[in-house]
Amino acid sequence: MSSNTPPVAKKVPTKRIHHGDTVIDEYAWLSNKEDPDTTAYLEAENDFLKQQTAHLSDLQEQVFQEIKGRTQETDLSVPSRKGAWWYFSRTEEGKQYAVSCRVPADSDAPPEITPGERLDREQVILDGNELAGDSPFFSVGASSVSPDGTMLAFSTDYKGDERFTLKFKNLTTGEVLPDEITDIFYGGAWSADGSTFFYTRVDDAWRPFQVYRHALGTQEDVLVYEESDERYWVGIGLTRSEKYLVLGAGSKITSEVRILDANDPAGEFRVVRPRTTGVEYGVEHAGDFFYVLHNENAENFELATAPLDDPGTWTPLIAHGEDTRLLEIDAFSDHAVVHLRRDGLTGLRVLPYGSAGGTWRERVEASERNAYEIDFPEPLYDVGPAGNPEFTTTRLRLAYTSMITPPSVYDYELDSHELILLKQRPVLGGYDAGDYEQFREWATAEDGTRIPVSIVKRKDAAKPAPTLLYGYGSYETSIDPGFSVPRLSLLDRGFVFAIAHVRGGGEMGRRWYEEGKLTRKRNTFTDFVDAARHMKASGWSERIIARGGSAGGLLMGAVTNLAPELFAGVVAEVPFVDALNTILDPSLPLTVIEWDEWGDPLHNPDVYAYMKSYSPYENVDGGPYPPILAITSLNDTRVLYHEPAKWIARLRASASGGPFLLKTEMGAGHGGRSGRYDAWREEAFALSWIIERGTA
Known about the structure:
Elements: E1 14-18, E2 21-25, H1 36-53, H2 57-70, E3 75-76, E4 80-82, E5 85-91, E6 99-104, E7 123-127, H3 128-132, E8 139-145, E9 151-157, E10 164-170, E11 176-184, E12 189-190, E13 196-202, E14 208-215, E15 222-226, E16 233-238, E17 244-250, E18 255-261, E19 270-271, E20 281-285, E21 290-294, E22 302-306, E23 315-318, E24 324-331, E25 335-342, E26 345-352, H4 360-369, E27 372-373, E28 382-385, E29 395-401, E30 408-413, E31 418-424, E32 436-444, E33 450-458, E34 465-470, H5 488-491, E35 496-500, H6 510-514, H7 522-537, E36 541-549, H8 551-562, E37 567-573, H9 579-584, H10 591-598, H11 605-614, E38 624-625, E39 628-633, H12 642-654, E40 656-657, E41 660-665, H13 676-695
Parallel strand pairs: 34-35, 34-36, 36-37, 37-39, 38-40, 39-41
Antiparallel strand pairs: 1-2, 3-5, 4-5, 5-6, 6-7, 8-9, 9-10, 10-11, 12-13, 13-14, 14-15, 16-17, 17-18, 18-19, 20-21, 21-22, 22-23, 24-25, 25-26, 26-27, 28-29, 29-30, 30-31, 32-33, 33-35
Keywords: Hydrolase, Protease, Serine protease
Pfam families: Peptidase_S9, Peptidase_S9_N
């Protein structure tokens, strides 16, 4: 095959009729993963991609070396205290995966650790490199130490399909127990005494729907909960206080919580409050009461309290605010911390109980009167709680970053209100934050809504400049202004990097999300187009390359249909581009759960027509399209590989422009390749393609 001859996917017309609409899908056969023709086609696409991008090999290697050269390969995390131990992780030069370690806690001060040096009495808990062996893919789904610090529950995945095998390790002897449980989901929770571990299983649609109880040393696990409603996921956790097991069931719009005394793992879970459609809530144990964060008659959520013996009776503490979205509550013995979002930025509100005596209700009311927010100086940043496993503490561990400040770990001293920097991720190679600037602009959407756009560039970058514009815009997920080492390879070549905080995300509160879902989903796409137009009209950008992944890949497909002339290139990673066909098929992973996000086109003709109007695969036309690079993984369980494969095939057959390239990782999942060096090479490949498109 010559470099100028792309693969041609055979056409096998498959008829689909919904709500009186007849559609022919020529590439539906690609969804058969076991068909040798499917494998042959994907491999032919990979060969074509290699030929088309061979000239980028030197640039790709250069970018990879830049990423590697800016990264302190032998490094470690900040130790975090839990019980009698300080826990931390190491990375070592030349090794793909982190090593989890701990040392005895001889004092309240964390140990001084030097990268590359071992501590006396240091214990390796889990070595990802040893576990991975020669496997091309490796992932840990759970790594949980029992409350008494003697046992480790850990689960592993060697395919990328997010089906894990659970094992247990005695941390005193180093012995791995014979107990082994296959085909489980992420996470899990210990009972208070460490005798029992709770875990979840998924159904055929990849929905976690069952919670099991495993008593160490036994073979017959007990099903403690099964969720029959296909719209709901389940999960299990242990409160920070280690007093309660919390079993949550939730759809996209509704939740229900059950609790159990963690000292009675064989007991019966009790419902906090029965599910009510549209009401989401979470429960946090705070000693002699519960905090409840909920959205009942509170779009941006309200913080309430509830007695232990009647957790379904909620008394407001922090009322709903139109300008502030309450994200989560962390409770400790003497204070609580609210993670919030306002004006497109995250923040932290501290509620100190202080010396207030009396009832628990009097203490929490005093905490709200004395509440305050922690100030941060940069115009753009992202902050949140991080690594706070101890219930009784005088410090709050938090993570902070911005588009020019590398990820930083602080301890906030509650008594003195002092922020103590414990570690800032080293950026080697002479990085100087003073060489760069970050700021926010506001694009105007077609309906008059102001769309925030976060921008970072070198101060000496020319204007206009080639621009990478990133977007997501689904599930109330916020793409916050954070730091990226690989991004420096763009900025130092004169690129502008921008994030379009489009509706459908959560950057501006719950209403921002509501205005970009269901039958208002088109706002997500038109917001991104308007952000791109703003970048050009304001003089910042000339050639714009758009990038997004997963649901952000749907965004990429939609905007290339809406305004292909705006973009010099598009990178769509694990893209959800065959949205209508996927959401029509309840047998596919996660489809029924997704109906609350996208609507139900199977039973509702109006939703069907609306989704058909924007689904990228359905709307490819014969006009010119920009060059497109689609990246997927064969074992992805969230966005199946055939979506981008079908999309690229239809673009190549029906559209002009391009070229249209497909890259399939044949041994990875939704997150791509697992090892850090492999991931750096994959990012270097994408960046080299972006650089060429931006400077062509």
